[in-house]
Every structure is written in structure tokens, then in C-alpha cells.
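SEQUENCE AND FOLD
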Amino acid sequence: MFKKLLIANRGEIAFRIASTARRMGIRTVAIYSDVDRDGLHVEACDEAVAIGGTSSADSYLRIDKVLSAAIETESDAIHPGYGFLSENPKFADECDAAKIIFVGPPASAIEVMGSKSKAKKLLESAGVPLVPGYHGGKQEVSYLSQMANEIGFPILVKASAGGGGRGMRIVESLDDLEAAVSSSKREAEAAFSDNHLMLEKFITEPRHIEVQIFADKKGNVVHLFERDCSVQRRYQKVIEEAPAPNLSIEMRKKLFEAA
């Protein structure tokens, strides 16, 4: 077990990580930008390092500054929390190169799951049931039109990278596909620097239920049950409810087995 943990985040998540680490007897290090010097997470940790900057891009997203703070304080590990660098495979790789434990998935897993297309190919190979769709490399409108006809309208044009509902368009007919593909590509390129698209059958009145998975480096894997995230606004979750209501025992078992 490591003895000192740098928390590469701020606010509520950093405070919670610090509280848990304290209960486990692990010393903690906070980092803070110029605007967060009085943050609660700074007080919650045993040490704190100023990394400067007023924006996230010049502070919490700066891999060099975060690693310098970890090395300066002789931290054994870095917990990224959520957001910021938590899903950046390069950060996980650089932690490994600096011989600092990254509390999270390996870079290879982050990279695969960071792309919906790559993730779907992996799930497909594992026999996990998928929504009908196309997640291949061909991106010409003519080919996407062919795939859309095979899937059947309505479909969802979706950016492979990123999230938050950006780069997504509902398409009701073939006549609307070219315009939807064009606008989705522009939005995805601007938001994620990646305009790769995928297609999915659009499901009306769906339920959004997630199963949380926890694994260690020794191959031990458990699920942490399910949560219902169906209540959303502009593709952003508003409420997450666990356990998911009105879910049969049989369906719950199928979800856990697939996960």
C-alpha cells in the first residue's frame, strides 16, 4: 500500500478522496490553481502544492505540473478523481514512466474505452449484446447511407469520441442523413479533435441503466450493481438512482452477466 497520495482534482471529489485516505492512514497532497487556493480540498489534505493558472487548461489539465507536484512531495500515487486527467491515457502512461501509481485503469483500457467505436468492437468480441449499428472505419456518406438503410430508421448519428451529447443527431430518413453527418463531424472535430462517427438504431423511450465494474491488477473483477440514469436533460444525467426501479430479477441477472 502506498503511503502518500496526490489528489489531482478539486472540490467535492477531492475532499471525499482525502477523507477516505485519512481513514486508511494514507497522507494526502492537494494541488490547487490560483482561484482555488481557499478550496475546502486544500484544507482537507496534509500538504498542498500551488500549480498556478486560473483556468483548468493551465492547471489541473497540465500533466507536467501535476507530475512535478507529485515528485516534489514524494507522493507514491496519484488519484485523478473524475474529469480532468482521469480519462487521459497519456497521463496514466506518464505516471507509470515516473514510477508513480496511477489510481485507475491502465492506459490501454482508457484508450479503448475512450472511443465508443473501439469499445463496441471489444464488447462485440466478448459476446456482449449491442444495439444494432455501425462502428467501422469507413466514413464516406455513401457507405454510411448504406449502413443506415440496413440498420433501419430512425437512427442516431454519434461521435465516436467524447461525450456529453456533442456530435449526436437523430435522423428520421435517408434524406436527412448527409446534413446530419456533416454537422456531427464539425461538432465532434471542434469538441474532441476527432470527427469519426458511428451509427446506432435510435431507441424511442429507452431506459439508461449502467452496471459499475471494479477490477484490480490481479484479475479480480466484481460488479457494484446497477444504477438508473434515465432522467436526463440534453443528454446529461440529472438523477442517478440505485437500485434501478422496476427491473426484474431476471433482467438484472442478464445485465450483471453481460457486464
